[in-house]
Specification:
189 residues; alpha+beta; two-stranded antiparallel ribbon; 6 strands; 58% helix
Length: 189
Amino acid sequence: MRLVRLFGTTAVVVNDTTLLTGDALGDDRSRRLLARLALAAPAPVPLARLERDLGRATLLRRDAATLAHALGTPGLVVEQEDGWVLRPGWARVDVQVAHALFARAAAAPPTTALALVLRALRSCCTATLLASEDDTLPWVAAARARHDRVLRDALVRAAAAAKVLHDDELASELMARALADAPQHRRAG
């Protein structure tokens, strides 16, 4: 199974060993298309939104072909009536894996909740989301803001779970990270 990594440099990991980045994804435009579609997967991204975010449909079709050729996956980008998607089942996406772990943690007892959040922090949330992309692009800023909210909520819940489990040191560390990762603190610092 493949994993699209959006934390840090956009990459595709194949069989947990092969890391495809940069030219292996085609070019900057095809990498952006991959990132934009992976963020929404499995939901389609309407063509009008893709055009607003990434450019004209003719360029997008070229980018999709470049990406599919670079990854050796014909038909990787699927045009549907309601928008464009990456071929269903082609890959997992790290940010979605992390958010799914956070969602499971929200409904779990303290021990499990803490373990799930720590697992997501270690395995997925190790770098800036979409670090390869310009943070002035609206779709990048929106994705980072959404992730910041989800991460902050998960950190606060994990801190509460650690407190219940009498691990005050870990609770303090998690709460400090939740406060440090808050967007208003990042801009001010």
